[in-house]
Design a protein that fits this description.
Blueprint: E1 3-7, H1 16-19, H2 23-26, H3 32-39, E2 49-53, H4 59-66, E3 70-75, H5 79-82, E4 95-97, E5 104-108, E6 111-112, E7 115-121, H6 132-142, E8 143-154, E9 159-160, E10 163-164, H7 172-181, E11 185-186, H8 188-193, E12 212-218, H9 232-241, H10 245-254
Parallel strand pairs: 2-3, 2-7, 3-4, 7-8
Antiparallel strand pairs: 1-5, 5-6, 8-12, 9-10, 11-12
Organism: Candidatus Roizmanbacteria bacterium RIFCSPHIGHO2_01_FULL_39_12c
Protein name: Methyltransferase domain-containing protein
Pfam families: Methyltransf_23
Length: 255
């Protein structure tokens, strides 16, 4: 299996996140509760394929691979690659750099590959507004007809060393309208199935809907996987315990 990324823009040179590395330098977000919920949408024999845009340290990608599935991560800055940070030291053949607001193609054994899920965790707000349609075109080109596009987006500025790393600061309403205009529909039932357990957003940061939102989207809602059953114990665990204040305190005390 040979994976190749084709792009004329191997790094997002003009991005503030590359010029003033912050998320790309420190973030390595992961949440196995999200992974387990995502897997339930597909057959146990299905090899899930995930494309993570703005993968930072790549830990989410590594978790998917460690669980026996297939994942690729793309990052606009080469900081983590140069310093072999986090998962870049462990799965370098599955992590790549490129400007995701410019055309790119992911190939496996010389053929374009499509993914069951494309994710973008706190990424889209880092792209200039005029570059967002091209980003969504890349998502469309790499998404299976029945696939999900899952994005968490913060709607407030993020100032580092006097530079606002968030180049598109818009409301949840604006983002939903933008997605709809570009052919994506929100899957409210699928979103609620995760019970707030995402890689970023939801119960992870709890900034409030006026500051942060998670979208679970589809190009073809009628083809989206059916919402699976969820054991009551898992539902209660996700909704009330995992990442709660008490849970975080217990983990802190046990470390």
């Amino acid at each position: 299996m040979k994976i190749k990324l084709k792009t004329k823009f191997p790094i997002a040179f003009n991005s503030p996140e590359h010029l003033t590395p912050f998320g790309t330098r420190f973030d390595q977000s992961a949440n196995r509760r999200f992974n387990l919920n995502l897997y339930r949408f597909f057959s146990q024999t299905h090899l899930l394929k995930v494309l993570d845009l703005g993968c930072a340290g790549g830990n989410f990608v590594k978790d998917i691979i460690d669980d026996g599935h297939f994942a690729i991560g793309l990052e606009g800055s080469d900081w983590s690659k140069k310093f072999k940070r986090a998962a870049w030291a462990q799965i370098p053949d599955f992590l790549f750099t490129c400007d995701i607001s410019k055309k790119f193609t992911v190939q496996m054994d010389g053929k374009p590959i499509k993914f069951d899920a494309v994710t973008a965790w706190e990424v889209m707000e880092h792209i200039k507004t005029e570059g967002l349609p091209a980003l969504l075109k890349n998502v469309k080109n790499h998404l299976e007809p029945a696939g999900f596009f899952i994005a968490s987006i913060t709607s407030v500025p993020h100032i580092v060393d006097g530079i606002n790393l968030h180049q598109t600061v818009k409301s949840k309403k604006w983002w939903l309208k933008f997605f709809n205009k570009n052919g994506f529909s929100q899957l409210s039932g699928h979103h609620d199935y995760f019970d707030g357990q995402f890689i970023r957003g939801g119960k992870v940061e709890k900034l409030g809907e006026n500051k942060q939102a998670v979208f679970v989207l589809s190009l073809n809602p009628e083809k989206a996987p059916s919402i699976p059953g969820k054991p009551l114990i898992d539902k209660l665990y996700d909704r009330y315990w995992h990442l709660s204040k008490a849970h975080k305190l217990l983990r802190l005390l046990s470390d």
